[in-house]
Design a protein that fits this description.
By secondary structure, the protein is mainly α. It is about 45% helix and about 0% strand. It contains 4 helices and no strands.
């Protein structure tokens, strides 16, 4: 991708561009090469790449809970958070 003439790029553009094309280059069926990248856009790309969050999946130990309606959900929340010593 040739950035010749590019004067500005939003952080959201750089974020999406990074995640779609640069973060996992082996996932693409093509090779992405950047040319004529202005220094401020290069700096933003560097900042975006350093701020990527690594997600750790933690297996849940809790049971799945289903509700028939909103009132059922609210009743369930009341059992979790209601403490008579605080509210009475």
């Amino acid at each position: 991708m040739d950035f010749k003439g590019a004067k500005f790029a939003t952080r959201s553009f750089i974020y999406d561009f990074y995640n779609l094309f640069l973060k996992t280059p082996d996932a693409n069926t093509f090779r992405v090469e950047l040319t004529n990248v202005p220094s401020d856009i290069k700096a933003m790309q560097g900042a975006v790449s350093r701020k990527q969050i690594r997600v750790n999946v933690i297996p849940s130990q809790s049971q799945e809970v289903a509700f028939k309606d909103v009132n059922d959900l609210l009743d369930y929340f009341n059992t979790l958070f209601y403490n008579p010593k605080i509210y009475d």
